[in-house]
User: Fold this.
Amino acid sequence: MKITRQTVRVNTGGPDEEGCLLCVDGRLVAVLVKLSEQHDDDIAGKWFMEHAFGIFGGWDHPLFDRLEDAERWAQANIL
Assistant:
């Protein structure tokens, strides 16, 4: 299994534009957005799962401290 990511800007309609596409074996599984300083101190700077696809689509919207944490989460939840 190969996990890759690509940084992108996401049009969220707000200040949270720094984004990342998370792919597993070349397939897009999640769009992550870094929460801006506009949010409370306890979540500002964390990565929010804006949208997920496939087997990840049924999950709530978890928060990750780092992109590496999102990658580990994806690895742990692949069939």
